[in-house]
C-alpha cells in the first residue's frame, strides 16, 4: 500500500507513441528506375535488283518530227538511251517488229497494234520557184488543171482527185528525185508539208493545197509489247508530266 496515493508517472498509462517519418519528400518518393533500353534487331531487307541496260528504239517515218518528245524522254529517262530509227511509210508494220514504238502514217490497219493518232499534215504542191503556181498564196485542185503530176514510189497520200491534171509519162520517182524534177520545171509534186520541207531546195517552192487530202501521223506499237517504257513515251506524247498518273 506504500504506493497508494502516488501519481502515476507522466505518460505511464499511454501507449507507445507513433514515430512520424520526417524524411525529405525525395526520400519518401524515390525516382523510378529508368527502363532498360531494348535494341531492336532489324534484318536487312532485300535490295531491288538493278534495271538491266536497255535502249528505247523509236521508229519515225520521213517528215515526222519527234524532236520535242525525244528531248522530254532524255530529261525523264536519262538512264534509258533513245535510238531514233528512220523507217519507210510503206514498210512501217514490218519495221515495228524490231522497234518499241514508231511514228507512222495512217492508214495502218492491224488489230495487233495500238495506234494513237497525233496530228494531221496539210498537203502542198511543190513546183519550180518561178512557176506561175507560186504566185498564189494557196491552191485548189481546180488551179492544177493542165499540170503534170509526178507519181511517187513512196507516196503517202494515196489517189488524188485532180480533175484536169495530167499524169507524168515517166515512171514514178522517190520524193527527193521527184522534187528535183519539179524544180527543173517538169511537172509538180503533191506531198505532206513536212516532206516538202525535208527535201527543200532553193529552186523549188510549195503552196498549200486547200482541198487536198491530209496525212495523219500516229504513234503505234504492238499490243503484246506494251512495256513501262512504252507507257512512259505515250505519256510524254500526250503531255503528261512525270508526276501524272497513267
Task: Report what the structure shows.
With 246 residues, the protein is α/β, with parallel strands linked by helices. It has six helices and eleven strands. The strands form three sheets. It has a five-stranded mixed sheet with strand order 2-1-3-11-4, with helices on one face. The longest helix has 10 residues, at 67-76.
Would you spell out the secondary-structure blueprint of this structure?
Elements lengths: L24 H4 L27 E5 L6 H10 L5 E5 L5 H4 L5 E5 L7 E9 L1 E6 L9 E2 L8 E2 L16 E2 L7 H9 L5 E4 H6 L5 E6 L5 E8 L5 H10 L9
Parallel strand pairs: 1-2, 1-3, 6-10, 7-8
Antiparallel strand pairs: 3-11, 4-11, 5-9, 5-10
Structural class: alpha/beta
Distance between the termini: 116 Å
Shape: elongated
Biggest sheet features = 5 strands, mixed
Strand content: 15-25%
CA-based gyration radius:
44 Å
State the helix count: 6
Q: State the order of secondary-structure elements, H for helix, E for strand.
A: HEHEHEEEEEEHEHEEH
Beta strand count = 11
What are the segments in which pLDDT stays under 50 over at least 5 consecutive residues? none
Helical content band: 10-25%
What does the average pLDDT come to? 87
Question: Order of strands side by side in the largest beta sheet?
Answer: 2-1-3-11-4
Amino acid at each position: 500500500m506504500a504506493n497508494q496515493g502516488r501519481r502515476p508517472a507522466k505518460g505511464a498509462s499511454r501507449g507507445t507513441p507513433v514515430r512520424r517519418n520526417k524524411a525529405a519528400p525525395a526520400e519518401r518518393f524515390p525516382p523510378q528506375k529508368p527502363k532498360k533500353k531494348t535494341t531492336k534487331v532489324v534484318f536487312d531487307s532485300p535490295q531491288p535488283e538493278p534495271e538491266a541496260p536497255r535502249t528505247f528504239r523509236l521508229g519515225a517515218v520521213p517528215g515526222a518530227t519527234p524532236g520535242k518528245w525525244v528531248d522530254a524522254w532524255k530529261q525523264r529517262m536519262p538512264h534509258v538511251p533513245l535510238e531514233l530509227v528512220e523507217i519507210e511509210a510503206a514498210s512501217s508494220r514490218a519495221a515495228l517488229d524490231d522497234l518499241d514504238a514508231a511514228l507512222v502514217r495512217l492508214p495502218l490497219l492491224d488489230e495487233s497494234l495500238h495506234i494513237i493518232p497525233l496530228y494531221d499534215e496539210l498537203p502542198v504542191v511543190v513546183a519550180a520557184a518561178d512557176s506561175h503556181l507560186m504566185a498564189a498564196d494557196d491552191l485548189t485542185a481546180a488551179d492544177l488543171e493542165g499540170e503534170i503530176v509526178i507519181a511517187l514510189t513512196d507516196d503517202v497520200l494515196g489517189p488524188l482527185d485532180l480533175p484536169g491534171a495530167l499524169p507524168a509519162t515517166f515512171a514514178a520517182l522517190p520524193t527527193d528525185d521527184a522534187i528535183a524534177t519539179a524544180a527543173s520545171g517538169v511537172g509538180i509534186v503533191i506531198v505532206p508539208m513536212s516532206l516538202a520541207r525535208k527535201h527543200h531546195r532553193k529552186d523549188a517552192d510549195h503552196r498549200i493545197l486547200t482541198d487536198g487530202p491530209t496525212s495523219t501521223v500516229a504513234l503505234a506499237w504492238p499490243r503484246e509489247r506494251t512495256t513501262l517504257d512504252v507507257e512512259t513515251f505515250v505519256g510524254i506524247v500526250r503531255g503528261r508530266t512525270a508526276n501524272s498518273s497513267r
